[in-house]
Design goal:
Length: 293
C-alpha cells in the first residue's frame, strides 16, 4: 500500500463513511472513493461493506488497520511538523472538543478571545472522546477539551474548571421543589436517558446504584443535546451536564442541580510528545478566567 492509500483507508475506517473521510482530509468524496476502490482491487479483497448508509469494516480491514494506524500517525506527525516549520504562526490554534463544549461554551470563548487578539486563527472541530484522542495523538490537533476524561497513556491533562449534572425539565415539574433535588424526586416522571453517555454517565450510574434508584426511560437519546431538545419539546425530564442545560434549543428549559452535587471536571488535553507552546498556555489561562460552567 502507498502512503496515500494508507491515509485514505485509515480515515474511512475511523469515520465509517466516505463523506467523513473526505471532510477530515479536505478532499472531494469521489477522490476518496476512487483511491479506496483502487486499493481494494490491488489487495484482492474488500475492506468495507455498505450497511444502512455506513461502511462496515471487514475482518481483513480490522487486521490491516492494526498494522497501518501507527504508520498513519507517523505520517500525520511528519506532515504537521513540516507545516509548523513552514508556517510558524503563534496565533494559529488547532482545537478539538467533545460536543457538549462545542454547543456554546467554547465558541463563545473563542469569539471573545478573538475580539482581544484579532489576528488569531482557530481551526476547531468536535468529536466523540475516542476520536478526539486519536486526533491529538496523530498531531492533527494540538489541544483538546473533554468532560471528566479518564487517564490515557500519552495524553496530558490540565484542569480548566468544574461543572455538574443537573435535571432539566420543560414544564413546572420541580418549580415548587428546593433549589437542589434528590434523585428520589425524579421518580414517576417520564425520563429521557442518554445512550452510551461515557464518563458523565458513569457518575450518574454510580449515584443511582448507591441510592438504589432506577428510572424508566421512555426515550433513549444518542447525545445529551438531543436529550435536551426532547425535553424542550415536552418528552419528559432528563439529567444532563450543566453546559448542555444552558444551551439554546426548542422549549423553555429549566434546570436544578442535586444534593449532594454530581460534579465533573472540564479538562484540556494534549499529546505528551508535543508540549503546548506559550500561546496555547496563554489561551488556557484566558479560558480558566472566563469559562462559565
Amino acid at each position: 500500500m502507498r502512503l496515500r492509500q494508507i491515509e485514505i483507508f485509515n480515515e474511512v475506517y475511523a469515520n465509517g463513511s466516505i463523506s467523513g473521510a473526505a471532510r477530515a482530509l479536505n478532499v472531494a468524496q469521489p477522490t476518496v472513493s476512487k483511491i479506496l476502490k483502487h486499493t481494494e482491487d490491488q489487495l484482492g479483497f474488500l475492506l468495507f461493506q455498505r450497511s444502512k448508509g455506513r461502511l462496515i469494516a471487514t475482518s481483513e480491514a480490522n487486521v490491516l488497520y492494526k498494522e497501518t494506524k501507527g504508520i498513519y500517525r507517523q505520517i500525520a506527525r511528519l506532515n504537521n511538523t513540516v507545516d509548523t516549520l513552514k508556517n510558524p504562526d503563534a496565533g494559529k490554534f488547532r482545537i478539538v472538543s467533545v460536543a457538549a463544549l462545542g454547543l456554546e461554551a467554547l465558541p463563545k470563548l473563542i469569539q471573545k478571545y478573538r475580539e482581544k487578539y484579532q489576528d488569531t486563527q482557530f481551526i476547531y472541530q468536535t468529536h466523540h472522546y475516542h476520536d478526539l484522542i486519536d486526533r491529538l495523538l496523530a498531531f492533527d490537533k494540538d489541544l483538546g477539551f473533554a468532560l471528566n476524561p479518564p487517564t490515557r497513556e500519552g495524553i496530558k491533562q490540565i484542569p480548566i474548571g468544574e461543572g455538574e449534572l443537573v435535571c432539566i425539565y420543560q414544564g413546572g415539574e420541580f418549580d415548587d421543589y428546593p433549589n437542589r433535588l434528590k434523585l428520589s424526586d425524579l421518580e414517576g416522571f417520564d425520563f429521557v436517558s442518554i445512550e452510551a453517555s461515557g464518563p458523565l454517565g458513569d457518575i450518574l450510574s454510580a449515584r443511582m446504584e448507591k441510592e438504589d434508584h432506577h428510572f424508566n426511560a421512555k426515550i433513549i437519546a444518542q447525545t445529551y443535546f438531543v436529550a435536551r431538545n426532547m425535553v424542550g419539546l415536552g418528552s419528559g425530564i432528563a439529567i444532563v451536564d450543566s453546559l448542555t442545560a444552558k444551551s439554546q434549543g426548542p422549549g423553555d428549559i429549566k434546570y436544578k442541580g442535586f444534593n449532594p452535587p454530581m460534579k465533573f471536571a472540564v479538562k484540556a488535553l494534549y499529546a505528551e510528545e508535543r508540549p503546548l507552546s506559550k500561546s496555547y498556555l496563554d489561551f488556557l489561562d484566558f479560558l480558566k478566567k472566563n469559562i462559565e460552567l
